[in-house]
Write a structure and sequence with these properties.
single chain, 290 residues, alpha+beta, four-stranded antiparallel beta sheet, two-stranded antiparallel sheet, 6 strands
Length: 290
């Protein structure tokens, strides 16, 4: 899905990319058939047609109509620029804070501010969501962005607290859980050293050696190996939008490695490598996995 894209401070922000971070049932939560159609048109590439429907609704509806905040939310989702997105979302929060769409608006504000590299605004929006809507199922998503923003603000304690909240609320979303786990690793206490006792070593029997050598191998495609968490996060987002399920592996030298898939044969991995090369670019490589 690809909607409006604008460049802010060197970062290309796709509004549709931000929306993919929401749970699917909330992403498609508009109940008015006109708004559903407007979003469908925009998501199919007819963005101008979708915006026209929403503009007409906002011009004809009374602000007291229950559909009005829904229309503001739809307008934000397909807006052409960040200023319009922010304006519509903030209006929902301020004027319709007691309604069912305010937590959606705060989540999108959190994601928008984080994409614009504004950690202060990011945590402000997320903390308001936590404070005013403690039962919202969207809190883990907002706290994922806010936790990383707190890291940028050098508040590791609060950042780790929100990252843990996001991890606890990930549910069955394996991809989201993997993304959060990557950041949660920086909050984990150092592992307790294992004390080994001196004992007479016993050579491995031939049978044991045979079992080790016959362990099935697996392959993955590595698309990135860097020490920058920001680069990793950008790549994970790109891969998600393109339909690839990725994960992060950290090696002993401090490199974060973004990998896709776990394939039984090298041939399968090579086919995935070719697709990644075509869609993502760079130099993806096939690697062995234990």
């Amino acid at each position: 899905m690809r909607l409006a894209v604008r460049r802010f401070g060197g970062l290309t922000v796709g509004i549709a990319v931000l929306l993919t971070a929401q749970p699917l049932n909330r992403l498609t939560a508009q109940t008015d058939s006109r708004l559903v159609e407007a979003l469908r048109l925009a998501q199919s590439g007819q963005v101008d047609s979708g915006r026209a429907i929403v503009r007409r609704l906002l011009a004809t509806l009374s602000p007291g109509d229950s559909v009005f905040p829904q229309a503001l939310l739809a307008a934000a989702k397909i807006a052409p620029d960040a200023q319009t997105v922010s304006s519509n979302l903030n209006r929902i929060v301020v004027e319709y804070g007691a309604g069912p769409w305010a937590d959606d608006a705060l989540l999108l504000l959190t994601q928008l501010y984080f994409a614009q590299h504004d950690p202060a605004q990011t945590v402000q929006a997320a903390e308001r969501l936590n404070r005013d809507y403690p039962d919202s199922p969207l809190r883990p998503r907002a706290n994922f962005s806010a936790g990383r923003a707190y890291f940028e603000l050098k508040n590791e304690a609060r950042g780790c607290e929100l990252i843990q909240n996001a991890l606890d609320g990930a549910g069955d979303d394996v991809e989201f859980k993997n993304q959060v786990s990557f950041y949660a690793s920086r909050c984990s206490p150092p592992a307790t050293p294992v004390t080994t006792t001196t004992a007479t070593s016993t050579p491995a029997s031939p049978d044991t050696s045979a079992k080790v050598s016959s362990t099935p191998r697996a392959y993955a495609v590595q698309v990135l190996a860097v020490k920058s968490a920001a680069q990793v996060d950008d790549m994970l987002t790109r891969l998600k939008v393109m339909g690839f399920e990725a994960r992060v592996v950290r090696d002993s030298t401090g490199f974060f490695k973004v990998r896709v898939g776990r394939y039984a044969t090298r041939e399968e991995a090579q086919r995935a490598q070719a697709r990644l090369k075509q869609k993502v670019g760079g130099q993806p490589v096939v690697v062995d996995e234990p």
